[in-house]
Amino acid sequence: MSEQSAKAEAVAEAPAMPARLVVASSPHIRSEESIPKIMWTVFFCLLPACAVGVSVFGVRAAVLLAVSVATAVVTEAIWQKLTGRHVTVHDGSAAVTGLLLAMVCGAGTPVYVVMVGAIFAILIAKQMFGGLGMNIWNPALAARAFLQVSFPVEINAGWPAPKWTIGESPLFDPRHYTTAEQAAAAGKALPWGVDCVTGATALHEAKEGVKGLIGLSPDLWIGSVPGCIGETSAIALILGGLFLIYKRYVRWEVPAAFFLTIAVLAVVLPMKTYGAGGTVAYTWDYGPLLHLAAGGAMIGGFFMLTDMVTSPLTVKGQVIYAIGAGVLVMLIRSFGGYPEGVCYSILIMNTLVPLIDRVVKPKVYGTAPGAEKGAA
Q1: Domain presence at residue 366
Q2: 73 neighbors 196 (Cβ within 8 angstroms)
């Protein structure tokens, strides 16, 4: 046997050694985090606010939440099947979109309206841009704005009155409520599962010039007030948002900048109110607590402004983005005829994200300031 053959035979008989080096393409820095893990964490962080909404507004709220989530998931699965793409509904992004959409609708919204909104959110606001990671606007908010324009009567016809309350507030004036008997006398009917409706959300009352410390009402913070299903409970949304910050899925600077901007402008800017006979007045009676607890400030600050896809890349850019959204919210609330402004302010700032990213560029590691510009 030759020396070469002996070496070959020895190598063949030697026990296999475990691989010490794995050569693969980037990324080389790996993490246990994944899109499904992040999305499903966000989904479960929204559930406390949903639970309060169901407790306050009844079974109809649960039906709308379930229908919206199911419609969003099924729509995405069907579209991806028809277009020959890998079905990715397991990642939770469609479920989060459906849940957020229902949370920013009232419990009196017709089921078909929510279904149309969920289809629009997935097909138009998400898939038409290329799917997850390619969309320009937050899909749930884009769908909510679409519904506001397309179904204004169904969206704003009436807000179901809460089934239980804790404190006393001008919001619970019986004169604002329409019972089933009153609706029948007027030739109308209340939505299924609703005992009575009211047009008196907290921000609507402020626009009407109703006085009172409604910003300090415990019902406003717990969530037993007329309003959207998942927006009314500020405390539940805060708890969910803080958990996302703890998990580092959300940077604390973004909601902090948003809330601080709203609070400061609530002190500085007067609110334009409309009284009896169409009279217009400006008042500073409504402070930061009302603007932070009422409407979509909490859900917008914690769960929509922080959307990884539609927010700027850098921390500095995200802070500018959050401040801009806060300014727009208060301008709409203070001087506009529409009592709320979170949805449109975030969509406008979503549109400006490419500009913010272009102006606020991250520093290239290992280069002197301005070096990358000179290299270009």
Answers
A1: no
A2: no
Count CA within 13 A, CB hemisphere, residue 268.
9
Q: Is residue 10 part of a domain?
A: no
List 106's β-bridge partners, or say none.
Answer: 228
Decide if 98 contacts 71 (C-beta within 8 A).
yes
DSSP-derived letter for residue 106 is: B
Whether the pTM exceeds 0.70: the reply is yes
The letter for the amino acid at 294 is A
In a domain, 17, yes or no: no
Q: What angle do CA 9, 10, 11 make, to 5 degrees?
A: 90
Beta-carbon contacts of residue 104 (< 8 Å; ≥ 6 apart)? 140, 141, 144, 228, 229, 230, 231, 296, 299, 343
| CA dist 41 → 23, 122, 222, 236, 310 (Å) | 32, 20, 22, 15, 18
For the segment 29-72, what is each residue's pLDDT rounded down to a tens digit? 666 778 899 999 999 999 999 999 999 999 999 999 999 999 99
Which residue range is the domain that position 316 belongs to?
Answer: 35-168+182-359
pLDDT digits (tens, 9 = 90+) for 196-227: 888 778 888 888 877 666 777 888 899 888 89
Nearest to 77 by CA among 62, 59, 58, 98: 98
Instruction: Pick the more confident residue, 114 or 9.
Output: 114
Residue 30 belongs to a domain: no
Q: What is the pLDDT of residue 241?
A: 96
